Amino acid sequence: MERFTLITGASSGMGALCAKHFSGSHRLIMASENLEMLQDVLKECDHPENHILWHCNFATERENIVQSLTDLLKQHDAVVDQYVHFAGLTKLLPLKTFSIPNIDLIFNVNFFSILEIMKALLKKSNAKALSNVVLISALVSERGNVGNSIYAASKGAMNSLVYTLARELAPKIRINALLPGAIETPMSKNLDADYIAEMTKDTPLGWGQPQDVINYVEFLLSDKAKWITGQTLFVDGGRSTK
Amino acid sequence: MELQEFINNFAEQFDDIDASALNGSTIFKDLDEWNSLVALSVIAMIDEEYDITLKGNDIISATTVEDLYNIVQSKK
């Protein structure tokens, strides 16, 4: 059976860059709800023939995630040994204006999908292969941030999951979360100007690039990090010092 | 419900033990992988698959896989 690294959110932003970064050295399962964008990213990957696309909408197909991933692995005679969760959604709004569908959307993509994916990966057919999980959380899960309540709470839930699963799945499986601060991505370009100015002021080393996060993912996936599990690690240009 | 089907579902709760390694007379608490989390998983599986809620005492009073199967049968 071939071993694969599963990268969710692989059709855009940091997830897409991460997929391209690892495409030469890993066989990838690239997941997204947008098949067209995913296919475009695949074209830019090394060895596109080595990788598998997983078309799944975490926001609306929560009930189907386990089955969909289990079927995909079976179909390709594949197992997942490493899982990196980049899939994420945010919406900046005051809490009082958040509708239930919007709250569900953010929690499904940012948090609940991880539970379902982990359940699929911990099935007997895959559990022996799984060794490493990296979840992309956010600095705002640990620091207050106006307008980001639901996003921050979903990432806080992710952090909690890391602490518990690190103990539950040790010593065979390591799981960690990265908490990026201000990173230039398509998602951050949609923020309003005041918000961007404030983030710039608060970050001693200035805005980060996606590669700054990907380097850290690479480290956590490597044997150099073999004694690191259950951690929620800031990668934020010093912004958490405030 | 068949005993073999129950054994298959029971074995699913372990990472390293296959159904082929188990039979009705297996003393499940002697299995290397048996622990309190697996016990909770077995209770959850029985709830989901057979719609029967076991108590911790049911697990304590069972010695073999078939004992557990019989307890589930008796509650149907």
Count of spatially separate domains of chain B: 1
Order of helices and strands of chain B: HHHH
What is the CATH homology-level superfamily of chain B? Answer: ACP-like
Largest sheet of chain B: none
CATH C-level label of chain B: Mainly Alpha
Oligomeric state of the chains in view: heterodimer
Report the biggest beta sheet of chain A as strand number plus sense, adding barrel if it closes: 7 strands, parallel
- CATH fold annotation of chain A: Rossmann fold
Radius of gyration of chain B: 11 Å
End-to-end Cα distance of chain A, whole Å, is 48 Å
Write the layout of secondary structure elements.
The complex is a heterodimer of chains A (242) and B (76).
Chain A (H helix, E strand, L loop, with lengths): L1 E7 L4 H10 L5 E5 L2 H9 L8 E4 L9 H11 L2 E8 L14 H22 L2 H4 L4 E5 L12 H21 L4 E7 L5 H4 L3 H10 L7 H12 L10 E4 L7
Parallel strand pairs in A: 1-2, 1-4, 2-3, 4-5, 5-6, 6-7
Helix pairs in contact in A: 1-9, 3-4, 4-6
Chain B lengths: L2 H9 L24 H15 L5 H6 L3 H10 L2
Protein architecture, described:
The complex is a heterodimer of chains A (242) and B (76). Chain A has one domain (2-236): 3-Layer(aba) Sandwich (Rossmann fold), CATH 3.40.50. Chain A has nine helices and seven strands, in the order βαβαβαβααβαβαααβ. Chain A has helices at residues 13-22, 35-43, 65-75, 100-121, 124-127, 149-169, 186-189, 193-202, 210-221, and strands at residues 2-8, 28-32, 52-55, 78-85, 132-136, 174-180, 232-235. In chain A, strands 3-2-1-4-5-6-7 form a seven-stranded parallel β-sheet, with helices on both faces. In chain A, α1 links the parallel β1 (2-8) and β2 (28-32). In chain A, α1 (13-22) packs across α9 (210-221), α3 runs parallel beside α4 and α4 runs parallel beside α6 (149-169). Chain A starts with a strand and ends in a 7-residue tail after the last strand. Chain B contains four helices and no strands. Chain B has helices at 3-11, 36-50, 56-61, 65-74. Chain B has one domain: Non-ribosomal Peptide Synthetase Peptidyl Carrier Protein, Chain A, CATH 1.10.1200. The longest helix of chain B is centred in the middle third of the chain and has 15 residues, at 36-50. Chain B has 76 residues and is an all-alpha fold.
